[in-house]
Amino acid sequence: MAIINNAGVILNSHELIEVPISKRAEIFHEWHKSLLHEVVPVFIQKWEPKLHVTVKRYFLQRMKTRWGSCNPKAGHIRLNTELVKKPKDLLEYVIVHEMAHLIEPNHSDRFVAILDKHYPNWREAQNELNELPISANLANP
């Protein structure tokens, strides 16, 4: 396992590697994605039988204005990699929110009813998430 410190040095079990500043953001982004890939499938598997939906595929990417998105026709959900920096319960809320869009594509009364039934404290999670910044550094591509 490699860890990068504040000085831009990768600490890898037996060696120190200097990392150019231009590469640090991408290294962190890939690390964040790998951490999310460990937990996102667990949440998806937990919620698929509860919501009676199937996520055919999920994607992780930087997003400047959203925590997630959904393509109901394709059965895909997309999650913001910045969620790795948020509490796990908020990540779970975003996953459930996007999976609910596989049932109801818009934020209709039906969509709200789905969240009310399956994730009763969704409003608190949404409020907490909306108080947090989406990205610490929007300058990164």
Number of strands: 6
Structural class: alpha+beta
Biggest sheet record: 3 strands, antiparallel
Report the uncertain regions: none
- The first-to-last residue Cα distance is 25 Å
Task: Characterize the structure shown.
45% of the residues lie in helices and 18% in strands. With 141 residues, it is α+β, with helices and mostly antiparallel strands. It has a domain at 36-131: Metalloproteases ("zincins"), catalytic domain (Zincin-like). A three-stranded antiparallel sheet has the order 1-2-3, with helices on one face. Strand 1 and strand 2 (9-12) form a beta hairpin. The radius of gyration is 17 Å and the shape is globular.
Could you list some keywords that capture this structure?
alpha+beta, globular, three-stranded antiparallel β-sheet, 141 residues, Zincin-like, 4 helices
What's a quick, concise take on this entry?
The chain has 141 residues and is an alpha+beta fold. The chain is built from four helices and six strands. A three-stranded antiparallel sheet has the order 1-2-3, with helices on one face. A three-stranded mixed sheet has the order 4-6-5, covered by helices on one side.
Helices and strands in order, then pairings?
Elements: E1 2-4, E2 9-12, E3 15-18, H1 21-51, E4 57-61, E5 68-71, E6 76-80, H2 88-100, H3 109-118, H4 122-131
Parallel strand pairs: 4-6
Antiparallel strand pairs: 1-2, 2-3, 5-6
Helix pairs in contact: 1-2, 2-4
